[in-house]
């Protein structure tokens, strides 16, 4: 094929260029081919010589319609342009674009290229022949004008694609309209969704006064009636319209207006108002093009409004997302979002809870942080919620970086995270709450146990009283064989031992309200040691005590103080046994008169306190014991008790192993302090000659006690009346006179306290002659009662000698007996 035509190919290096070159050299060797790689090179060549046809690769124009329009605008109007596309879909979308003679898709239609080139050149020659007539210049102007109008319409239609914000986009759009058509200004009216009335949405070219005038309700109603009701465009001249014939319009030189509706899906959504300085209808001069422009403008505004709505929604979503994230991040509860079993989000509270750096948490399986025994539970719950089954709040144990177990109360829900379903946990740390609950439960158990022990101890004291009494009576029988005497001594000794054990149990088990009285520290420490004497002995732990010669009494609650001493003693005992099978505990009580506080030291030779917890040993829930062996509250409670007493408790440094706790308690004036009811010292019976036998009333619900007391007192020559309840005793009082009443405090029906009040109402002096017996001298209510009445009392179980001594002292104080002179 011999042609000699000049063909320029603007194409990038690659397979397409190589294939096209081979094809044209083979099928059209007469073509004069030039291969260029840039648009700019092509226009430089055109300045020097002509070209018959150009083949332009669309990708060099950045696959952009705008760039294509610019390229066509700069090409000679009669130069055939063949567009080459490596993308079939892209080529199909522009196949009817004005200014393109043809297009080829590589490689599908490559074989047709020589024919397409010749066809394009042939069309060019035909057009050249047509342009030889006198209308050539007019035709050229028409084509150029058509290209400009097409470019304008294209710019209008694609304005929404360049949306930045509504105001700037509309400004650009309206300025283009005003540059294309000789109007003074343009106004966009839109229907307000709330009021359903027209209002000015945007304007261009208006003065403020003109805008204010047009915004009035009359104009708004006019536009609404004229546009929405008819749905058609209309033209008005100012001089013939009284509504618009006003100073703001006349001052601006406005002589006519053109209104046209904005419609979406055949529904009026607004209107365009064009203001002109001419009385002519400028829209009619370019009627087709103007109507086409308004149509494109309406579509562009629709798209802009849609894009604006999307932009507002996106902004609200971003704002909502930002607020939601801030809410999550700053929430007091821990929040985890889990996707595909891995943690994809965790807030600050969750990071603090686990004590890991965030990079060691994100992307890791949530189950990595769950204690082994809770993993199956966590998996079941996750699966149930992913199946949208309702799951109530549940508890889970997690492990933080230090290995500490954390109990959290969790609520889960299925959420969407980054477009995919995920599982959200909201957890509240209830570790401390659980520990407090366990402590409270333990305290309640101890309180219940204390009440049980108190009841048992009280019941034991009654038979112990009989055992001690009858064994002592039998021991006085000289006719018994020695071995029986020995048996009785064993019974008496073991009964006395049981008595001491019961008293210690009562002292410890009683729950006392805080009440400070004068306390002897030496007695308090020794009494506390007695409570643990048996355990210390069987565990081969030796107790050493040291007391200064002078230890002042202090003002304290004896029950609270004993709790502190007992806690330190048990802690030392358990610490020693955790390391060895024997040990030593040393308790030192000393007082330097120049320094006011009394010092009490508890020293053991156990393993001591680890440095990691020395500084926090008195904090709640800090313990050195294995899980389940302690609550971690003992030292914290002890610290609070000592502090409430105005003292201090500290952990002292030791040279070797072991621990040393120092308690310092202030020495206070105790003249006004409450004292325990006076307990009368044990003594032997003085040789006494009673002034005749005494009439004594015995009241006790235990038959055995009445029997032993009656036997003892009758052997002393007294007349005894024994009754088993207080109501019967009141009957005897009304009929007889008694020198002394021995009354138990705790009895069914009317108890000893009630009996005392009844007697006091009947005979005040007789009420002073009551000596109380009780199996519970440690009870706070009993102590208060005895302290208030100031009557003598004796605690069960008691020895015969103690009872007789107390009775003799009573009659001696009342001058009803005299002491026999031993020298006579």
UniProtKB/TrEMBL annotation:
Which domain of life does this protein belong to?
A: Bacteria
GO terms, biological process = regulation of DNA-templated transcription
Residue(s) carrying 4-aspartylphosphate: 744
Task: Alphabetically list the UniProt keywords.
Answer: Kinase, Phosphoprotein, Transferase
Occurrences of domain PAS (ranges): 320-389
Q: What's its EC? A: 2.7.13.3
* Gene Ontology MF terms in the entry: phosphorelay sensor kinase activity
Response regulatory domain segment(s): 695-811
**What positions does the domain Histidine kinase occupy?**
455-669
InterPro entries the record matches? CheY-like_superfamily, GAF-like_dom_sf, HATPase_C_sf, HATPase_dom, His_kinase_dom, HisK_dim/P_dom, HisK_dim/P_sf, PAS
Q: Does the keyword Phosphoprotein apply?
A: yes
Q: Which reaction does it catalyse?
A: ATP + protein L-histidine = ADP + protein N-phospho-L-histidine
Q: Does the keyword Mitochondrion apply?
A: no
SUPFAM superfamilies assigned: ATPase domain of HSP90 chaperone/DNA topoisomerase II/histidine kinase (SSF55874), CheY-like (SSF52172), GAF domain-like (SSF55781), Homodimeric domain of signal transducing histidine kinase (SSF47384), PYP-like sensor domain (PAS domain) (SSF55785)
Record domain PAC: where:
392-442
Segment forming the signal sequence: none
NCBIfam families recorded: sensory_box
- Give the protein's recorded name: histidine kinase
Lineage, uppermost ranks:
Bacteria, Candidatus Schekmaniibacteriota
């Amino acid at each position: 094929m011999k042609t000699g035509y000049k063909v320029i190919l603007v194409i990038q290096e690659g397979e397409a260029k190589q294939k096209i070159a081979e094809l044209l050299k083979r099928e059209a060797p007469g073509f004069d081919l030039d291969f260029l790689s840039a648009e700019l090179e092509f226009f430089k060549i055109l300045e020097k010589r002509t070209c018959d046809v150009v083949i332009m690769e669309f990708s060099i124009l950045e696959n952009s319609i705008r760039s294509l329009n610019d390229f066509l605008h700069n090409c000679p109007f009669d130069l055939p342009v063949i567009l080459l596309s490596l993308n079939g879909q892209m080529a199909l979308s522009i196949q009817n674009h004005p200014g393109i003679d043809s297009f080829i898709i590589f490689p599908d239609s490559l074989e047709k290229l020589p024919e397409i080139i010749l066809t394009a050149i042939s069309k060019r020659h035909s057009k050249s022949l047509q342009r030889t007539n006198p209308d050539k210049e007019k035709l050229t102007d028409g084509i150029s004008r058509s290209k400009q109008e097409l470019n304008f319409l294209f710019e209008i239609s694609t304005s929404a694609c360049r949306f930045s914000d509504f105001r700037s986009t509309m400004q650009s759009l309206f300025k283009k309209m005003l540059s294309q058509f000789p109007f003074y200004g343009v106004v966009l009216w839109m229907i307000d969704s709330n009021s359903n009335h027209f209002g000015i949405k945007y304007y261009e070219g208006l003065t403020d006064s003109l805008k204010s005038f047009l915004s009035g309700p009359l104009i708004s109603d006019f536009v609404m009636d004229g546009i929405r009701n008819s749905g058609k465009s209309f033209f008005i001249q100012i001089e013939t319209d009284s509504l618009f014939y006003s100073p703001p319009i006349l001052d601006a030189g406005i002589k006519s207006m053109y209104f046209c509706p904005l419609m979406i899906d055949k529904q009026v959504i607004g209107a365009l108002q064009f203001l002109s300085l001419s009385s002519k209808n400028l829209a009619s001069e370019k009627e087709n093009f103007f109507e086409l422009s308004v149509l494109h403008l309406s579509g562009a505004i629709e798209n802009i409004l849609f894009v604006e709505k999307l932009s507002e929604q996106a902004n609200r979503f971003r704002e909502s997302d930002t607020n939601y994230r801030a809410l999550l991040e700053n929430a007091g509860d821990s929040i985890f979002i889990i996707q595909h079993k891995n943690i994809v989000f965790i807030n600050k509270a969750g990071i603090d809870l686990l004590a890991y750096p965030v990079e060691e948490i994100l992307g890791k399986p949530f189950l990595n942080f769950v204690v082994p025994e809770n993993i199956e539970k966590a998996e079941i719950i996750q699966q149930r919620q992913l199946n949208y089954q309702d799951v109530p709040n549940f508890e889970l144990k997690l492990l933080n970086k230090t290995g500490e177990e954390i109990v959290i109360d969790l609520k889960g829900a299925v959420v969407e995270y980054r477009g995919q379903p995920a599982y959200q946990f909201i957890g509240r740390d209830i570790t401390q709450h659980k520990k407090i609950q366990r402590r409270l439960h333990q305290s309640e158990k101890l309180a219940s146990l204390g009440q049980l022990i108190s009841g048992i101890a009280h019941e034991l004291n009654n038979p112990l009283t009989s055992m001690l009494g009858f064994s002592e009576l039998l021991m006085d029988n000289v006719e018994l064989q020695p071995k029986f005497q020995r048996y009785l001594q064993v019974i008496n000794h073991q009964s006395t031992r049981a008595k001491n054990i019961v008293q210690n149990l009562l002292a410890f088990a009683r729950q006392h309200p805080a009440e400070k009285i004068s306390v002897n520290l030496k007695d308090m420490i020794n009494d506390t040691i007695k409570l643990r004497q048996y355990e210390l002995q069987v565990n081969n732990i030796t107790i050493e005590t040291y007391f200064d010669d002078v230890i002042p009494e202090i003002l304290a609650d004896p029950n609270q103080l004993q709790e502190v001493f007992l806690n330190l003693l048990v802690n030392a005992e358990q610490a020693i046994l955790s390391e060895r099978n024997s040990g030593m505990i040393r308790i030192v009580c000393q007082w330097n008169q120049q320094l006011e506080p009394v010092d009490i030291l508890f020293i053991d030779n156990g393993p001591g306190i680890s440095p990691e917890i020395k500084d926090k040993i008195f904090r709640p829930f800090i313990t050195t014991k294995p899980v389940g062996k302690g609550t971690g509250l003992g030292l914290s409670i002890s610290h609070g008790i000592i502090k409430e007493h105005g003292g201090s408790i500290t952990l002292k440094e030791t040279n070797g192993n072991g621990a040393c706790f120092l308690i310092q308690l202030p020495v206070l004036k105790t003249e006004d302090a409450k004292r325990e009811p006076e307990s009368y010292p044990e003594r032997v019976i003085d040789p006494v000659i009673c002034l005749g036998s005494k009439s004594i009333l015995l009241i006790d619900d235990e038959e055995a006690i009445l029997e032993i007391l009656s036997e003892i007192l009758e052997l002393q020559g007294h007349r005894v009346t024994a009754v088993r309840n207080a109501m019967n005793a009141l009957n005897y009082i009304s009929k007889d006179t008694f020198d002394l009443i021995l009354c138990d405090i705790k009895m069914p029906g009317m108890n000893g306290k009630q009996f005392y009040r009844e007697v006091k109402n009947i005979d005040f002096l007789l009420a002073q002659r009551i000596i109380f017996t009780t199996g519970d001298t440690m009870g706070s209510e009993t102590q208060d009662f005895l302290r208030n009445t100031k009557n003598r009392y004796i605690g069960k179980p008691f020895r015969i000698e103690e009872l007789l001594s107390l009775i003799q002292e009573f009659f001696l104080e009342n001058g009803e007996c005299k002491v026999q002179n031993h020298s006579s």
